[in-house]
Amino acid sequence: MTQRPTPQRTCVACRRVDDKRSFVRLVRDAEGDVHVDPSGKAPGRGASVCASIACFESAVTKNRFASALRASLGEEDVERLRHEFEDVLQTRGASAPGTGR
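The structure assignment produced for this chain is given below.
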């Protein structure tokens, strides 16, 4: 029995390539709303970012989420996403893979 290879993803901020479970996924759904996808399985256009607040902030500063998700993000959207992102990091715990660079 062969084992399937683990899917690889690239961080939109630092361009690090790693196992998809070490990233946090943001998704733009069919209605155009952007939100954090803790399961990594929600339908829609996705963007992966390292599980660190530094990479999240870098992606916001470089406007990488807007281009990767093909959506315009206002300040309110960024603040909401920041809170959702921090909540996901807290639920994963500090020992999760990919929490640092």
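Interim note for the steering committee: The domain at 8-92 is CATH 3.30.1230.10 (Hypothetical Cytosolic Protein; Chain: A;). The chain has a mean pLDDT of 91.
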